[in-house]
């Protein structure tokens, strides 16, 4: 019998979250049933729920920053045992056959990985995410959360953490490197912590100085308000690597100008409109404009272990199921310090 669990879902763009129940499939031999403790709210949940990235499958139960404990395992599961502290990120499956999957880069699966929500699973049913009490996931897409990282602050590592760790590691953020993190939100604050732990000199480029004190406390060496007249222009030629987490449509050119020759501007933020980039902005100084999509399963485990070793978790505000609409609004208004995390014990309808 499938397991029926409490969840929160939205019926369409702009529709409020409602308490509901969803069904989790019977455990297959390789499946793990997870009691979800916390689910982070990522801006991608909001882009998807508001239809900003095209068609969405409604009703939608979002959530791809999942932390909990293993409740039950299928007969052939070897990687996880009942009681283990585990996490699930943005993917729950992939084709496992293409050149990317066989190289261990499931996030770039050439047939498209299966998203934790708003995708069709191999059973032909829409996938449903972490704003729910339990989830069933193939063991190959379940991560181990190391001791020393509490589950609430671990949840956001499963998307925000890996999305910053992967490009920082790929472009070798480390001692002697000038790294800028644009946007001090859910992804951005993880970028500050991780780039600092990797040994880079870190600058936050935020719209204002409102979060400066936090940025410096979390590991930034410098904090610049891009809204201040001339502030970005004064940084021309400064950075080896800039990672932008901006979720909104902005002019990217001043950020390219802030790169050193041969510098890389990597976007992980996914605004709905295309960037406008004159070829000359890249040609002069052989600069690169790049993007990066989460990270592989192996790299996500590496990131979790790195975070445990460096005592890194997310800065979270724990909320109840009834506060999701308000939290989404606050994320859109850049009013989050720095990740909302839903306590899944509160998902049953309130009396
Ligand atoms: P978030 O918490 O809302 O952070 C985004 C930050 O962008 C805000 O805190 C704000 O920083 C800045 N920002 C917002 N509007 C801006 C504007 N008009 N001009 C300049 N800066 C602005 O969102 P998030 O959860 O970190 O996600 C950020 C983006 O990454 C979203 O587009 C999300 O979909 C995407 N994402 C991508 C991946 C991937 O694999 N590539 C994974 C997860 C999420 P300040 O207040 O400091 O200025
Ligand atoms: Zn996400
Ligand atoms: Zn594949």
From TrEMBL:
Its EC number is 1.1.1.2. Keywords: Metal-binding, Oxidoreductase, Zinc. InterPro entries: ADH-like_C, ADH-like_N, ADH_Zn_CS, CAD-like, ER, GroES-like_sf, NAD(P)-bd_dom_sf. SUPFAM superfamilies: GroES-like, NAD(P)-binding Rossmann-fold domains. It catalyses: a primary alcohol + NADP(+) = an aldehyde + NADPH + H(+). Gene3D superfamilies: Medium-chain alcohol dehydrogenases, catalytic domain (3.90.180.10), NAD(P)-binding Rossmann-like Domain (3.40.50.720). One of its GO terms (molecular function) is alcohol dehydrogenase (NADP+) activity. Its cofactor is Zn(2+). It is an enzyme of class 1 (oxidoreductase). Belongs to the zinc-containing alcohol dehydrogenase family. PANTHER family: ALDEHYDE REDUCTASE. This is alcohol dehydrogenase (NADP(+)). It comes from Quadrisphaera setariae.
């Amino acid at each position: 019998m499938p397991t029926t669990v409490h969840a929160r879902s939205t019926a369409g763009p702009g529709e409020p979250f409602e308490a509901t129940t969803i069904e989790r499939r019977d455990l297959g031999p390789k499946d793990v049933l997870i009691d979800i403790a916390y689910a982070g709210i990522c801006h991608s949940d909001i882009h998807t729920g508001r239809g900003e990235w095209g068609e969405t499958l409604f009703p939608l139960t979002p959530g791809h920053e999942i932390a909990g404990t293993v409740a039950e395992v299928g007969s052939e599961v070897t990687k996880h045992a009942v009681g283990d502290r585990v996490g699930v990120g943005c993917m729950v499956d992939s084709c496992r056959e293409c050149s990317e999957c066989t190289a261990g880069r499931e996030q770039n699966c050439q047939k498209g990985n299966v998203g934790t929500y708003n995708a069709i699973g191999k059973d032909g049913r829409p996938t449903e995410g972490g704003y729910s009490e339990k989830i069933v996931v193939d063991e190959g897409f379940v991560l181990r959360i190391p001791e020393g990282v509490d589950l609430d602050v671990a949840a956001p590592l499963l998307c925000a953490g890996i999305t910053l760790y992967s490009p920082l590691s790929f472009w070798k953020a480390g001692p002697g490197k000038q790294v800028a993190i644009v946007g001090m939100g859910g992804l951005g604050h993880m970028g500050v912590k991780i780039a600092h732990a990797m040994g880079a000199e870190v600058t936050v480029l935020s719209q204002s100085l409102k979060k400066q004190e936090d940025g410096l406390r979390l590991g930034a060496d410098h904090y610049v308000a891009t809204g201040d007249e001339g502030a970005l222009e004064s940084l021309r030629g400064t950075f080896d690597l800039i990672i932008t987490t901006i979720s909104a449509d902005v002019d990217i050119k001043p950020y390219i100008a802030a790169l050193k020759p041969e510098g890389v501007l990597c976007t992980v933020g996914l605004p709905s409109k295309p960037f406008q980039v004159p070829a000359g902005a890249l040609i002069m100084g052989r600069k690169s404009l790049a993007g990066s999509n989460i990270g592989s399963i192996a790299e996500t485990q590496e990131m979790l272990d790195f975070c445990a070793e460096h005592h890194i978790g997310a800065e979270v505000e724990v909320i109840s199921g009834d506060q999701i609409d308000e939290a989404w609004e606050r994320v859109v208004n850049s009013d989050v310090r720095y990740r909302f995390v839903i306590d899944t014990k509160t998902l049953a309808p309130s009396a």
